[in-house]
Specification:
Number of helices: 18
Largest sheet: 6 strands, parallel
Bound molecules: uridine-5'-diphosphate-glucuronic acid
Structural class: alpha/beta
Distance between the termini: 55 Å
Radius of gyration: 23 Å
Length: 436
Amino acid sequence: MKICIIGSGYVGLVTGACFADLGNNVICVDKEAVKIRKLKAGIIPIYEPGLQEMVRRNIKELRLTFSSKINEAVRKSEVIFICVGTPSKDNGDADLSFVENVSRQIALSMPSYRLIVEKSTVPVHTGEWVERTINIFNKRNMKFDVASNPEFLREGSAIKDFMNPDRIVLGVKSKKASDILTELYKPLNAPIVVTDIKSAEIIKHASNSFLATKISFINAVSDICDKSGADIVEVARGMGLDKRIGKDFLDAGCGFGGSCFPKDLSAFIRISEKLGYDFALLKEAQKINEYQKKLLVKKIEEMLWNLPKKTIGILGLAFKPNTDDIRYAPALDIIAMLSREGARIKVYDPEAMPNARLALSRLGAAKGVEFCKDAYQVSKNSDCLAVLTEWNEFKELDFRKIKKSMRQAAIVDGRNIYDPVELKKIGFRYTGMGRR
Ligand code: UGA
């Protein structure tokens, strides 16, 4: 099929590359001309395992092209995916001005029937607004369909998730739209849920909110484990084996971040509010997530008594491993809190250092932060190590060597990646999140 993807961010780029790899002709569009120039040269602006190779392969095989001209791309494509950003406004609402803009431009460019698919995460009723907007600007009266096809891929495993989805959700109003999208996704051999557009839109927000709540639930239980002397890793294992609960997303830690959960939780709370429902459960999930970051700082304080002039070594800045993304990463807030307390900070992350440097400067928290070349340099003369992202390379460190170089041998394991017994045997004071 001839496909056009509008918005070459995380979701757009992965979607475009994967559809091209499945044999379709794809044009990825973005309004940033510099980004498009780089993409044409096979330079990917994000770190995502396997993406660069896939993009380059499909450029070479002429199935994937890039453009900054929406009108041209819309003219050449039968299916148009809207993958633009829907950032949070100050009040938690999703800002849909990019979606509106793109809808208008699509309407002005359609030369014949087009299927317009929203893939960006959008509030319920957005499909209706897209349709209304296209109708207003569709001066030549071209036939079109609007559909909703939310994406469930995760950063760090985006290609694998796209190619092996648990389900594909298609929110449609016509059989034609359903047929086109079913055909497009056929090679993935995954269960397809064909439903109405509003239900599809809610499936996305409800899924992300449920997962975020699951994490906050286990984080709350981890606090009970801390207070009672139980071990959260054991508790989660015992709970997760129940198929109705499931073992995924039961890892307690210093909180969830990223460009999706925090934003989507706020958006779903606002959507509910506007529809007349106070989603207190989700507000509590948000509160618990904020508490986890403060709790981690409190744990460091408990290790070191006073924070001023102590050196804290931070391992991990990205909001999760295998990405350079630091949006809403717990590390940013934790570093800001520690700096305010007068601690000195050394940091290392395998991929996210450039992004973190920028973000910390914007927060006014970069002063006094030393960016190191690896975990060993971070450890040198530190009073406490804090693990904030569970990168694999942190799991295999030489802790005897680290202990010798630290001023005090103390670890706050914000992602529960170490065996407390082993570290204590080496001589560390250890605390995790819900285990000691
Ligand atoms: C999330 C969803 O998992 C995807 O299904 C969805 O498509 C995506 O948002 C989106 O809406 O675009 P992502 O934000 O990439 O994906 O990352 P996750 O792997 O879900 O992790 C989110 C955060 O939760 C991370 O900070 C991670 O450290 C934290 N987390 C995750 C935990 O603290 N504990 C867990 O058990 C799992």
